[in-house]
Amino acid sequence: MAFYSKEERSKIAVGFFSLLVAAVIMRLFYLQVISHAAYTQVAEENYIRVVPREAPRGLLYDRNGKLLVSNRPSYSIYFIPYQIRNPEEAFRDLSLRLSLPLATPSQLLRGRSKSKYQPIRLLRDVHFKTICVLEENSLDLPGIIYQVERARKYPPRGRGSHLLGYVAEISEAELTRFSRLGYRSGDLMGKKGVERQYDYLLRGQPGVSYLKVTAQGRILGPAGSREPVFPKPGADIKLTVDWELQSVAESLIASRGSGAAVAVDPKSGEILALVSQPNFDPNLFTGVLLDTVWQRLASDSLHPLLNRCLQGTYPPGSTFKILTAAAGLESGRVTTRTLFRTCRGGLAFGNRVFKCWRPQGHGQLTLMDAIAQSCDIYFYQLGEEIGLDLWSGYARRCLFGQLTGIDLPSELSGIIPSRAYFDEEYGEGKWPSTLIVNLAIGQGEILVTPLQMAVFFAAIANGGEILKPHLIREIKYPDGRLVGAQAELLGRLPFSPNTLNLIKAALVKAVNGERGTGRAAILASATVAGKTGTAQNPHGEDHAWFCCFAPAEDPRIAIAIVVENAGHGGSVAAPVAREMMATYFGGRLPLPAQEGVLMIEGENFW
Amino acid sequence: MRRIDLYLFLPAFLLSLIGIVLIFSALRDSSDQETASYLRQLVWLAVGLLVFMAVSAIAPRIYESLSILSYLVALLLLASLLFFGASRLGATRWLPIGPLSFQPSEFAKVAVILLLAHYLANRKRPQFRVRWALFCFSIVLLPALLILRQPDLGSSLVVVAVVPGMLFWGGMPITHIALLLSPVVSLLAAFHWLTWAIFMLVIIVTLLVVRPTLRFALWVLVTNLAAGIFTPLVWQRLHDYQKMRILTFLNPARDPQGAGYQMIQSKIAIGSGGLLGKGFLQGTQSKLAYLPARHTDFIFSVLGEEFGLLGCLVVLILFSVIILRGVQVARKARNRFLSLTAFGATTILAFQVLVNIGVTMGLAPVTGLPLPFMSYGGSSMLLSWSLIGLLSLVSYTWQEY
């Protein structure tokens, strides 16, 4: 190769340098012009700390204005990813220092597109002692900060836990399902009960503040370039429940074991009490839920998380004789004077003997006495007389086997067997026709919820209107607007006023009559109309039922009670109803009760 | 007193002032000790101007006669760091002189230029010998290793990079320089056998076309083969942390919390500056300390953030004026020694400017090189101004005739 002259070499050098400068300028252009917007955003995410401000969640009151669920200040622990060099190690260290279990960093960071300068919530509602430990160790725990937020405060001892529900952080599955409703990762969400059902009213709209922060995490004040958004509080809700009644009912059921009690206002469908025992403490879910606690709740053989009022399905036992009786009267298969074969404690249908609960027998009874004394032999024969098709038709028209549509999540519909149902279960025609005999006394494959029974008895009480049970009395929006709830008619009982009056009279007799099975529910201040039930179940002792309403002349409350594996409805469940009614009426009953009884008894001439 | 070459002095002076303004801005909200840095830099500028005048006042022939001595002194100073060096931030680069301290590596850069210029100026044969080139590399080998040991990868690279520049100016054909440096490329290409095979093919073709001496051709082939074969073997024997360190150096984005952090934050600073910048004292990346080493190696990022593309272009133009003038001075110099000295000084300035800016824009690995005139620090300021002094000196000799 030839030597280049000095001139040529200087040209090459200048050309080479110019090329490199051109490359630098192109790169500058790329960074500062083409990617400018993206880098501006990253720069802002660097120094502007977005502090979400949760909206104060709406409060819950009972029908008399008693505060049930409120918000209290609580401490949350956050971490700032970029200040933590080795997250795995840092979290292990933190977990040891605070003696609390922590999620792994990868779990927390999954699905988050946030800048690593933005704090991510690690723990909610930690104990004040934990914050003290955090403060003491703050120099050894860079990137770990805490903040004061709000946590839910629920009534003590789990009272009303199934009705009120609880809130917890939204899960990943819920996030994908509900993201279009504006939920974001880390948001609180109602998980059960009213908290879940009315989450959209209660949660309000979160706000946000913007803080200017140095790389070392020092906060310099609000970032002037962005306006803060103030959170909009959620709406307050006045529930239909009477907390005094609810509390009394909780203790009554709890003292007898597990079970449910539902009280409804027959005029409006308002739920006055909704008790499921055993209950759980919703306050456990506000903060760090220890795995062991969750395991204990979820695997408890008594299923404390189950809301027995609408998710517990039981055979109704003798309480269902009311439906059978009404169906018989309405269809004209029986009158109040019809007599069947005498009860001697048992009767053969086909090749099987069906027993009465009273081994010595009831003798020959009319319908009214058969209801009052709950004679099984009478109802076996009435059931056979009515037949499966007619019976299940009436049951379905009373909305059994269907959801009541109460404003709580996860209601179950129960089962009203029909010809189609049995064909499906056993094969067409491969089932004995005597199944109706058992169904007529509320045994066999029939399943109902306590809520359905309460709604049914409320409908009998109010003259036949099946009203949708509901929990909301009034909504108070943050702007002061008040919205009340209306009674909603689901349908009418398929029974004439005559039939209903007869049924009512029989119910009064079942409680107040000399040989009534529900005498334990007699009240001095009001006439109680009710029916006991003792439902056999294959899993153990009988379930004790009692369904009633009072005062019979002008019903103000209808109640359905079931106590699991507790024995006779008359001795176990009826006293619970009595105490509940006494509490509810508590001296504010205007009627002199005795007159009413006389009046209805006076009609007893069929 | 001779006339000052304004094409060199003015841009250098302006860049120094811009640097002081940026240092003021970068450290304004830091501790008082740091906030006063711009005042110290002002003092360094004054000292730098004195050095500039001193360097440009000395007679040119004295440099040539002192070239070997200054090289030996530089070696001695670098070696003495092993015994008397002051450590800062894990590196031993400073030699304490009373209350002040001084970086021998900066002096070594000047000494290496002088010795290389002296050696190459006296190779009078018309045909450039490969042996000369190898000797040039051996001249810088010892200082480069001593500087690398401090550790100061950036300065070490500068000392090595000046050699190909001066070889080129000394008359070595570019193809020969490229072939001479080809084993370095082989070293990297060897990680992927196909890439390396293609590269070897390119070398063989180049050898056939260029037709250098047989000895040189053999040397090129052997060194490339050795690099290609031994790299994978050595790589396999490295510990995982050593591999990680090398990979992270080549691609800082692999470690966004560590080595990549500076580069990422620097790109954010420059990118968010936009066309006109966020304005003086308005940079959030630098003000709020997201940008590390913002007053030293990453001063250009502060410029990009607060003064935008416009500010960057102004600074690039000022640097380009110095570099282009430097080439012109080298071209018109009175003798070979001065010409080579001027080109060496220009090469060092250009290399430091381009690598430093490249690092801030994420184009080059983070090596830790200051930006001449602008980065905070006395040694860098003194070196920059002594290089301008050397260029001015050569410029006078040309303009005197």
Low-confidence stretches of chain B: none
Q: What percentage of residues of chain B falls in helices of 4 or more residues?
A: over 70%
Q: Measured on Cα atoms, how large is the radius of gyration of chain B?
A: 22 Å
The CATH class name of the largest domain in chain A reads Alpha Beta
Most residues in contact, chain pair and counts: A-B, 40 and 47 residues
Poorly predicted segments of chain A: 589-606
Q: Termini separation of chain B (Å)?
A: 16 Å
What is the subunit organization of this protein?
Answer: heterodimer
| Fraction in beta strands of chain A | 15-25%
> Structural class, judged by helices and strands of chain A?
alpha+beta
- Kindly state the percentage of residues in helix of chain A: 25-40%
CATH H-level superfamily of the largest domain in chain A: DD-peptidase/beta-lactamase superfamily
CATH architecture of the largest domain in chain A: 3-Layer(aba) Sandwich
Give me the count of strands of chain B. 3
| Average pLDDT level of chain A | 88
Number of domains of chain A: 2
Describe this structure in words.
- The complex is a heterodimer of chains A (606) and B (401).
- By secondary structure, chain A is an alpha+beta fold.
- Chain A is 36% helix and 20% strand.
- Chain A folds into two domains: 49-239, Penicillin-binding protein 2a (Domain 2) (Alpha-Beta Complex); 243-281 and 307-602, DD-peptidase/beta-lactamase superfamily (Beta-lactamase), CATH 3.40.710.
- The radius of gyration of chain A is 34 Å and the shape is elongated.
- The relative contact order of chain A is 0.11.
- Chain B has helices spanning 6-27, 32-35, 37-57, 60-84, 104-121, 130-148, 153-170, 174-189, 193-210, 214-237, 240-250, 259-273, 284-287, 299-332, 336-360, 378-400, and strands at 86-88, 91-97, 100-102.
- In chain B, helix 8 (174-189) packs antiparallel against helix 9 (193-210).
- The mean pLDDT of chain B is 89.
- A three-stranded antiparallel sheet of chain B has the order 1-2-3, covered by helices on one side.
- Classes of the chains: A alpha+beta (606), B mainly alpha (401).
- The interface between A and B is large, with 40 and 47 residues.
